[in-house]
């Protein structure tokens, strides 16, 4: 729902082509509305609601540029060169946090998804969570981890 940039990097048509019935002449610069793709009601049920179920095994979506409902790394020759590293790094970091900590909201606080102003659509109000270690502190220091 929240791409790094609402519009992807500019692309240029290398030859005359047709996309979805629209003629695109050679040399045309194209900006893909990534923000709009993530909120398209034709692709997503309840598109303006954060729903992790969009990406479960029952409803797989490929973020590597093959499914055009979601393009976090764009697609084609100009896609993000750090995609593989980013996906692996994020997966590892999230796994470590979820394995070693419990995340929760402050009592009485709801998640606010309001967007602020800026080219990268920052959150209007930062998300603040409580991070609580799952194990006793001495167990983290024994394994070389730090809190």
Task: Report what the structure shows.
The chain is an alpha+beta fold and 147 residues long. The chain folds into two domains: 1-80, no CATH class; 82-147, no CATH class. The protein has three helices and six strands, in the order ββββααββα. The chain has a two-stranded antiparallel ribbon with strand order 1-4. The longest helix has 18 residues, at 83-100. The relative contact order is 0.12.
How would you describe this structure in keywords?
147 residues, alpha+beta, 2 domains, two-stranded antiparallel sheet, Cytochrome P450, oxidoreductase activity, Cyt_P450, metal ion binding, oxidoreductase
Secondary structure elements and their pairing?
Elements: E1 11-12, E2 17-19, E3 22-24, E4 29-30, H1 34-37, H2 83-100, E5 101-105, E6 129-133, H3 137-142
Antiparallel strand pairs: 1-4, 2-3, 5-6
How is this structure best summarized?
This protein is 19% helix and 14% strand. It has 147 residues and is an alpha+beta fold.
**Count of distinct strands:** 6
Helix and strand composition category = alpha+beta
Instruction: Name the average pLDDT.
Output: 81
Helix segment tally: 3
Helical residues, percent? 10-25%
The main pleated sheet reads as: 2 strands, antiparallel
Rg on CA atoms, Å = 20 Å
Strand content: 5-15%
What is the total domain count?
2
Question: How far is the N terminus from the C terminus?
Answer: 31 Å
Looking at the structure, what is the overall shape?
A: elongated
| Unreliable residue runs | none
Give the helices and strands as they follow along the chain.
Answer: EEEEHHEEH
Strand order in the sheet with the most strands: 1-4
């Amino acid at each position: 729902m929240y791409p790094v940039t609402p519009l992807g990097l500019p692309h240029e048509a290398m030859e005359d082509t047709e996309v979805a019935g629209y003629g695109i002449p050679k040399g045309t610069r194209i900006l893909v509305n990534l923000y709009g793709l993530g909120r398209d009601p034709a692709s997503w049920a309840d598109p303006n609601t954060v729903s992790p179920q969009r990406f479960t095994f029952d409803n797989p979506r490929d973020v590597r540029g093959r499914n055009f409902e979601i393009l976090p790394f764009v697609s084609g020759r100009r896609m993000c060169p750090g995609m593989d590293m980013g996906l692996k790094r994020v997966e590892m970091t999230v796994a470590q946090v979820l394995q070693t900590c419990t995340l929760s909201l402050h009592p009485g606080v709801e998640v606010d998804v309001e967007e602020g102003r800026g080219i990268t659509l920052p959150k209007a109000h930062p998300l603040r969570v409580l991070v609580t270690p799952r194990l006793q502190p001495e167990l983290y220091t024994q394994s070389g981890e730090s809190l």
